[in-house]
Amino acid sequence: MAARDVDPYVTVVGIDGSASALDAVRWATIDAELHNSDLVIMSSVKNPTDVRDVGVPESYYDDLYTDTARALAEARSVAERTVGVRSAISIQTEPAEVGAIPSLLEWSKSARVIVLGCRGLGALGRGMLGSVSSSVAMHAHCPVAVIRTYTELSSRFTPAKSVVVGTDGSPGAADAVLAAFEEASLRDAAVTVVHAWADGDLSVGPPSRSAGWSRGKAGAEAFLDEVLFGPTASYPQVSVRRVVVRDRPAAALLDHGQAAQLIVVGSHGRGGFGGMLLGSVSRTVLHAAPCPVMVYRTPQGAAEHLVDTRKEART
């Protein structure tokens, strides 16, 4: 099935048979239920041309198909055990005969979100972000959630843990803030909004910059008032914690992420430009966060559908 042939309001999770991928399946299944979205579990079977050219027997590719089918069956079983007893979402499995990255990027043109584990079978070490997750997060056309850890709690909602979001005044960050409020609303959680007065580390600058921070803090608070006006009006039931820091926004997001269930970041911030794929703050958070991270982009292929579905969900 090609991505363009499906309903755009779909959650796609990519797997490779790793334990990290199964964590992503669990998280994606609950997320799909929260959003009343169908779930597609995708795994890639590499094109056999390159192995045939070097004399690898046909049985090698047959084994790849078998392994992929086994991984998809296991992932589907995990998803089916994760869904609620009254869940109405559908669960589909899809093998792809091209590489994982191009397959997922094609899906991202119409999906609501792409969900991935933080590292695949080829990743070494717990702190390493897998190449597929990193590449898809940089190039996707829709939001990408990277699941570093997943703990199956007794409750499907974790209101004790907030949704953390960073904002810097850029259009992408404004969209990320609104998305964070929606995620918090669905999870019955609070939002922690982090704003840094400066992007760099001001501790290495001249002492006079401290005075600038004293004067700038009031302006930063006023900025947050403006940023939060729309989201708080749309989601009045969501409680908000406002955090203004002097510098190093990535450090502040990672700090507050220690007690969070999700961090939401924009794809690039005020330092970005049109051709930039992922901002430095988003990259840092993606590689080091202690909890799931969503790199938010407005879904290109599903914007109108998303608006209509969200309206229906609230009525």
TrEMBL record:
Residues 12-148, 161-297 form the UspA domain. It comes from the Bacteria. The keyword Transferase does not apply. Pfam families: Usp (PF00582). One of its GO terms (molecular function) is ATP binding. Coiled coil: none annotated. The keyword Cell division does not apply. InterPro entries: Rossmann-like_a/b/a_fold (IPR014729), Universal_stress_UspA (IPR006015), UspA (IPR006016). Keywords: ATP-binding, Nucleotide-binding. Belongs to the universal stress protein A family. This is Universal stress protein.
